[in-house]
# Entry
Amino acid sequence: MFVHMNFEDTPVEAAFRVEAREWLEAHAALRSANSSHGVLSVLGRESDTAADIEIARQWQQKAAADGWAGISWPTEYGGRGATLMEQIIWSQECAAFVVPDAVFRIGISLGGPTVIAHGTEEQRRRFLPPLLAGEEIWCQLFSEPGAGSDLASLRTTAAADGDEWIVNGQKVWSSGAHYSKWGFLLARTNPEAPKHQGITWFLLDMEAAGIEVRPLRQMTGLSHFNEVFFEDVCIPDTNRIGDLHDGWRVAQTTLLHERSMMGEFGVGGVVDALVALARQHAPDGTVDPRVRQELADLYIRAETMRFIGYRLITAISQGGLPGAEASVAKLAMARLLNDAGDLGTRIAGPASVVKDPDEFANEWWETLLAAPALRIAGGSDEVQHNIIGERVLGLPKEPGPSRDTPFKDLPIS
Ligand SMILES: Cc1cc2nc3c(=O)[nH]c(=O)nc-3n(C[C@H](O)[C@H](O)[C@H](O)COP(=O)(O)OP(=O)(O)OC[C@H]3O[C@@H](n4cnc5c(N)ncnc54)[C@H](O)[C@@H]3O)c2cc1C
# Structure
């Protein structure tokens, strides 16, 4: 569908932008010109130590106290009650500052909106305010060793026991599970039903008995995600979000928000930072023409992404939901940041492998190591290609077993 794009803030939005920027100027540091702009914050850099988590909590508490948490969330759950456009303006303004809120993003951007859409009033009032106020961190317990791209193949079970559920199984790649209070969990509640129809969405207390969280170390040296094992873990039925066996539909809300969030990551400012880095490494002031060529290529791609972003924003502001545009944005973002990390490392040269808190060269090396994860997280490049193939190009769906086959009769891969 052709969407007419509108780039201008309304007067109300322009006033909101000024207010947001003034608050950020008063409470956050500006990002340095040649810093790699937040790519690493989402992949563990800002949550590696207990001190990092404490900084994030304090930031979130301050933001919530001053009315800058959950911009578009209803005020009764601790939000600001503003529009989606104002939420987007807030994110745009935050991009220029060091905002240490990464550990709260899974809860606030993915889990919270799912509880708003599918939870009961009592559940919203219990779970949402402590999340926004920085008191409770959430993680996502969806992927398993045999269920990532094909998430509906998940095998972790939740068996009914009176008004409780007993959970057994394993999750993997669970970002932040090692410091989270709540995990939103997809578990199989009916193996007799076809695979999409026997899943339920729960909020699991990560302090419950029977949970073992084992951090996984990445090649960056950080431990951003974990394996999580469940042995007879109890969940009260009051923590079930949405209808029984309807978790696949509930999870679509979570995944839509995940794709939209991923498409937003760290691209704004990354090319300017590379240009600053290239100038810094050109002592006579002339940047190598081959580097200039690569910078121009990245600039064009970042500009294209900016326009895809406007298309998404315009669709949202006109009351629509992002569709395949979110897949295009996510795919383009992951490729661009991989190439930016590669170019930044080549420009900075050997300096990039030296850890020096006053030098940003090392951030580009870390970006090079961290960025490949973005091509997998939130739906891999290949999966985005499939979505674009089917929904944009109109190609036929991949063949597979019937959607009506009971889960227990499906072959195990
Ligand atoms: C940094 C990071 C953070 C993450 N955080 C979380 C989290 O907090 N919670 C959580 O639940 N999960 C998390 N994940 C997991 C993530 O959602 C999965 O890694 C992702 O969905 C891919 O699944 P998989 O790793 O099982 O790979 P697989 O699905 O096994 O895929 C393996 C390869 O096969 C390709 N492939 C698979 N299916 C198809 C197909 N139909 N057509 C073409 N190619 C295909 C894939 O593209 C990939 O290259 C995270 C992952 C990363 C990298």
